[in-house]
Design a protein that fits this description.
single chain, 565 residues, 14 strands, 14% strand
Length: 565
C-alpha cells in the first residue's frame, strides 16, 4: 500500500468519498502511553506530523544534571502542532559557520550582506532547559502498518542545533513510507557537565553524558510508543550528522543503547579530536571533572554544596559563564566507563560495537568551514599557542616520522598554508575516521557501506566546495531557501533518500532496482575498498584517498592503545 493510500485510510476509513475529504481537514490523533495527541496533516494530507512531544520530564530545578526522568502524562488531547523549545545554544560557532558558508558561495557581496542581515533579523526559536521534545512524521497511523522507523540525531558540536532545524523540517522521508523521528537533547554545559559531586550523586559512579542519556531515552520512547504512529519498534534506524554522527557511534558503543536500534547511518561523524575522559587527562584535554570543577569556581559555587548552588542559578547565568571563556565553557561527551565505556574507535577496533548494518561517509571538502571555526588544524590542540607560519609542535609530535609525508601530501602544511590545512582537517577529522570505522565494521563481518559526497555548486568564485553539512538537504529532501536546489540537485536528493530509506526498510541499500543514476552500491570490502560517490552523477569507485587516510588511522590506533588503562 502506498503512503497516500495509508493516509487516506487513516483519515477516513469506511467513509464515503465526500466524508473522507472532511476527515482529512481534521487533525490526526494518536493515543500513546502519556495520553492523546493531535497533530497536523501535511504534504497534501499524506503525512501526519506530531511536534513537541515530551519524551522525558523537563530537566530543570533539581532535575538539572540528572539522567532523564519519565515523561509526564496529560488528560484530554494535547496539541502537537508546534515544536518544543530548543536546548540552550552556544551559537557563536554556528554564526561563524554560516558567515563562511554564505561568503564562500561565489555570490556578489551585496547578496551575501543581504542574506546575513536577513538571518540576523530572523526570529530565533525559543531556547530553554525544558527542551526534551521530539517530532514524529508518519504516512500511516495504523499499528498494523509496521513501517520502518528512522530516528534523526542533529549535529552542532554538542553545543548547538535542534531536531526542528530547517534542514530537517521535511516530510520527504516520511513520504517514502517511513516513520521519521527527530529529537532534541541537552547540549553543552546542560548536557555534559561532569562535576565530581554529581558523580557522588550517581548510582553508577559517573557524571556528565546527560545529553547522551537523553538520546537513549528517545530510543526507549520509540520502542514503547512508535507502533501507535504506524512504526515498527523492531526496525529502527538511527542516523545523524557531525555531532549527531558521533552520537550514532556512541549509541553503537554504549551497552545502554544495545537492542534499541537495528541499523545505523553516520554522516561525517566528528569525534577524532576529543577523546575526553571523565577522571583523567588525555592529550591536551583535562579530565571532564577538572574542567567542570573550574566552571563551578568561575560561577562562584565553591562552598560545601556547589551543585545545590549551581542548580539554583538561572540557565541564563550559566550560559553567560560559558560564553565568557571558550575553553572553560566546553563540555562534551566523555568516556565514563558506563554510558560511553570506551572510545568508539576502541570499540570498533576491538569488535565490541553494535552488530548492525551500517552506512558511513563524509564530504569532499569538510575542512572549508570547519578550519575557520577551529582556528587550528588539530581540534584537540586548538586552545594551545598557534605558531603563525610553522607546524604546531603538538602536530609534529603526534605524527613524528610521518610529518614529512604529510607535507608531501598537503604542500604548505609546514608553513600553515590555508589550503593545505583545510585539506588536512577534512581528511583527518572526517574522511579517515569514516574509513576507519567502515574498515573495522566490515572486518567484523557486519554489512557496511561507505560513501563520499562531492556535489559542488558550479559557480565562479565558489570556495566552500562540498562543505561540512552540505549533504543535509539532499538526505532530508529539504530545499532551504537561501541555498536553493537545481533540478540536478533534486535528482541527486531523490537518489540519496532512496538509498537511505532502503537501508532503513530492509538493511539493503540496493533494494530499489538500479537505474541510470542509481548504481548498485557495493558493500565495503577491506581488501578492495570502494565507496559510492554522490555527485550529479552517482558512481561506485575505489576509495581515492587511502594514502592520506593510512597516516591518520595509524595515529588513531596509537591513541586507542594509549587510552587503554
Amino acid at each position: 500500500m502506498t503512503q497516500s493510500a495509508y493516509a487516506r485510510r487513516d483519515a477516513g476509513a469506511g467513509m464515503p468519498a465526500g466524508e473522507d475529504d472532511m476527515a482529512r481537514r481534521t487533525n490526526p490523533e494518536v493515543e500513546i502511553g502519556q495520553g492523546r495527541l493531535a497533530g497536523r496533516w501535511k504534504a497534501k494530507g499524506t503525512v501526519a506530523v506530531f511536534k513537541g512531544i515530551p519524551f522525558a520530564a523537563p530537566p530543570v530545578g533539581d532535575l538539572r544534571w540528572r539522567p532523564p526522568a519519565p515523561a509526564p502524562s496529560w488528560n484530554g488531547v494535547r496539541d502537537a502542532g508546534k515544536h518544543g523549545a530548543t536546548a540552550v545554544q552556544r551559537a557563536a560557532g554556528f554564526e561563524t559557520f554560516m558567515h563562511e558558508l554564505l561568503g564562500g558561495q561565489g555570490w556578489h557581496p551585496t547578496r551575501v550582506r543581504g542574506l546575513e542581515a536577513l538571518m540576523q533579523r530572523m526570529p530565533r526559536p525559543p531556547e530553554s532547559e525544558d527542551c526534551l521534545y521530539l517530532t514524529v512524521r508518519s504516512p500511516a497511523l495504523d499499528p498494523a502498518a509496521k513501517l520502518p522507523v528512522m530516528v534523526w540525531i542533529h549535529g552542532g558540536d554538542h553545543q548547538d542545533g535542534s531536531g526542528s532545524d530547517i534542514y530537517y523540517d521535511s516530510n520527504v522521508i516520511a513520504g517514502k513510507g517511513v516513520v521519521s523521528v527527530s529529537i532534541n537533547y541537552r547540549l553543552g554545559v546542560f548536557g555534559y557537565f561532569a562535576h565530581p559531586d554529581l558523580r557522588a550523586e550517581s548510582d553508577h559512579d559517573v557524571a556528565g553524558n546527560y545529553g547522551t542519556l537523553d538520546q537513549i531515552a528517545t530510543l526507549e520512547w520509540v520502542r514503547d510508543n512508535i507502533a501507535a504512529f504506524g512504526g515498527d519498534p523492531d526496525n529502527v534506524t538511527i542516523f545523524g550528522e557531525s555531532a549527531g554522527g558521533e552520537s550514532v557511534l556512541h549509541m553503537m558503543t554504549s551497552p545502554l543503547a544495545r537492542g534499541l536500534f537495528h541499523r545505523a547511518i553516520a554522516q561525517s561523524p566528528a569525534n577524532g579530536g576529543q577523546m575526553i575522559h571523565l577522571d583523567r587527562p588525555f592529550l591536551a584535554h583535562p579530565s571532564a571533572e577538572d574542567r567542570s570543577r573550574r566552571f563551578a569556581e568561575a560561577a562562584g559555587a565553591t562552598g560545601d554544596a556547589p551543585i545545590a548552588q549551581l542548580r539554583t542559578m538561572s540557565a541564563e547565568r550559566l550560559h553567560e559563564i560559558v560564553l565568557a571563556d571558550d575553553e572553560r565553557g566546553d563540555h562534551y561527551p566523555v568516556i565514563d566507563g558506563y554510558v560511553i565505556p570506551e572510545s568508539p574507535f576502541g570499540a570498533f577496533a576491538g569488535g565490541r560495537q553494535a552488530p548492525v548494518p551500517f552506512v558511513i561517509g563524509s564530504n569532499a571538502d569538510e575542512g572549508t568551514l570547519i578550519l575557520p571555526a577551529l582556528g587550528a588544524p588539530m581540534a584537540e590542540y586548538r586552545y594551545l599557542p598557534q605558531p603563525g607560519d610553522a607546524v604546531q609542535p603538538e602536530l609534529a609530535e603526534a605524527y613524528g616520522d610521518d610529518l614529512a609525508r604529510l607535507v608531501e601530501i598537503y604542500p604548505g602544511l609546514d608553513r600553515r598554508d590555508r589550503r593545505a590545512e583545510i585539506d588536512f582537517v577534512g581528511d583527518r577529522m572526517f574522511g579517515a575516521p569514516a574509513f576507519y570505522y567502515a574498515d573495522h565494521h566490515a572486518r567484523a563481518g557486519y554489512p557496511t557501506h561507505l560513501y563520499h559526497f562531492a556535489r559542488v555548486p558550479k559557480l565562479e568564485g565558489q570556495t566552500v566546495g562540498a562543505y561540512h553539512a552540505a549533504e543535509l538537504p539532499f538526505v532530508h529532501g529539504s530545499n532551504v531557501p537561501i541555498l536553493p536546489m537545481t533540478a540536478k540537485d533534486k535528482a541527486l536528493s531523490r537518489e540519496m533518500v532512496t538509498y537511505w530509506t532502503d537501508h532503513a526498510r530492509r538493511a539493503d541499500v540496493n533494494a530499489s532496482a538500479p537505474g541510470v543514476n542509481h548504481p548498485e552500491w557495493r558493500a565495503f570490502d577491506p581488501d578492495d575498498p570502494q565507496w559510492i560517490r554522490f555527485d550529479h552523477t552517482v558512481t561506485v569507485e575505489p576509495v581515492q584517498r587511502r594514502d592520506q587516510y593510512a597516516i591518520f588511522t595509524s595515529l588513531i590506533d596509537r591513541r586507542v592503545a594509549a587510552m587503554t588503562p
